[in-house]
Specification:
It is built from ten helices and 19 strands. The protein is α+β, with helices and mostly antiparallel strands. The chain has two domains: about 220 residues, P-loop containing nucleotide triphosphate hydrolases (Rossmann fold, 3-Layer(aba) Sandwich), CATH 3.40.50.300; about 120 residues, Nucleic acid-binding proteins (OB fold (Dihydrolipoamide Acetyltransferase, E2P), Beta Barrel), CATH 2.40.50.140. A six-stranded mixed beta sheet has the order 6-7-8-3-9-10, with helices on both faces. The chain has a five-stranded antiparallel beta sheet with strand order 13-17-14-15-16, with no helix packed on it.
Length: about 375
């Protein structure tokens, strides 16, 4: 069931086109992420949904009704701001109760609702504390509880983890996802962090220059980017503007291509496990090795181009300056506004079982099947 959405929405601020014919739809009870770089128009979409901005054209839907002319107070929306906007001189209890008091709800109902939310968000025992006596994670929970207190139809969160340190941010991602699904409220959050969007959201909406580039589950977008921007923005992508046409990819010579570390592997020519595919590889040299915790990031110079590969710590030791054989399994080719996946043709000829191996490793006839 489509619960929230936009249809051909445009919004301009003087000479800046913040929203350019934006259209998308979100199902009831789902958690969606507006993902894109700074200045892409994510927050404008959030403010349009909240009623803090009015569209120049197009329609905005919430719970099946057009809300273009409805004031924020009548849209049934809860908003969690990036800086939380908690009232400094109010306790945790009073911050959560604020919206209910504005609505002049009975005192008994306020006590019951606030008590329920304090327990739900893990704030028990902190009711009498003030915001400056709380950690960043605790303040985020208070802001979340305050937004939920009036029982909104839609919850909007603007960069909800931006003001929290990395360790707590990771813990709160899972917490937020679990809370929203437990409450069952349709929610949208803004982020520029693709890892955050992939971990938390049911659906990702990629925004760029005021336009919607692609929508869908994280895995679908990662496997099958539909636009050049999506293919470059998602994943640890490396863009080669004038590809040299490495072995197995002669048809891509001179094209703009995108490579990800998982597309590339490097091995020494005395490795017996790779002898069959040795003719499909290029010669390269290691220019740098970076330790990334559970893997090594290997930078390679191949025909004057820098390629990146991830290497397991369990594999044989390698060193800066080593000569390696480098094989590219697949890449994305950009032609105008189209993206196509290309597999190493020479590899398929030399090792016809490669397709079976990919099906085993990635499922569904290959990670990028279709």
């Amino acid at each position: 069931m489509i619960y929230v959405g936009m249809e051909d929405v445009c919004k301009r601020f003087d000479d800046f086109q913040a929203s350019d014919h934006v259209s998308f739809s979100i199902e009831k009870g789902s958690l969606s992420a507006l993902l894109g770089p700074s200045g892409s128009g994510k927050t404008t979409i959030l403010r349009l949904l909240a009623g803090l901005e009015r569209p120049d054209s197009g329609k905005i839907f919430v719970n099946g009704r057009v809300v273009n002319d409805a004031p924020p107070s009548e849209r049934g929306i809860g908003f969690v701001f990036q800086n939380y906007a908690l009232f400094r001189y109010m306790t945790v209890y009073d911050n959560i109760a604020f919206g209910l008091k504005v609505k002049k709800e009975p005192s008994r109902k306020i006590r019951e609702r606030v008590g329920e939310l304090i327990e739900l968000t893990g704030l028990t025992g902190l009711e009498k504390r003030f915001p400056d006596e709380l950690s960043g994670g605790q303040r985020q929970r208070v802001a979340f509880a305050r937004a939920l207190a009036p029982d909104p139809e839609l919850l909007l969160l603007d960069e909800p983890f931006a003001a929290i340190d990395a360790k707590v941010r990771k813990e709160l991602r899972q917490w937020l996802r679990e809370m929203i699904h437990k409450v069952g409220i349709t929610s949208i959050f803004v982020t520029h962090d693709q890892d955050e969007a992939a971990e938390v959201a049911d659906q990702i909406i990629i925004v760029n220059e005021g336009r919607i580039e692609q929508t869908g589950p994280a895995q679908e977008i990662y496997k099958r980017p539909k636009t050049p921007f999506a293919s470059e923005f998602i994943g640890d992508s490396r863009v080669l503007e004038n590809f040299a046409g490495f072995r197995g990819f002669e048809k891509a010579k001179g094209s703009k291509v995108i490579l990800r570390p998982e597309f590339v592997d490097a091995f020494k020519n005395d490795n017996k496990h790779f002898q069959k595919i040795l003719p499909c590889s290029e010669v390269g040299y290691i220019t740098d090795i970076l330790f990334r915790g559970n893997f090594l990031e290997v930078r390679l110079n191949v025909r004057g181009m820098t390629l990146i590969s991830h290497r397991s710590l369990e594999r044989r030791p390698i060193h800066k300056g080593d000569q390696m054989n480098v094989i590219i399994y697949r890449l994305f080719r950009i032609e105008g506004d189209k993206v196509s996946l290309m597999k190493n043709e020479l590899l398929q000829e030399v090792d016809p079982n490669q397709e079976q191996m990919e099906a085993y490793l990635y499922g569904d006839g290959g990670y990028f099947a279709g």
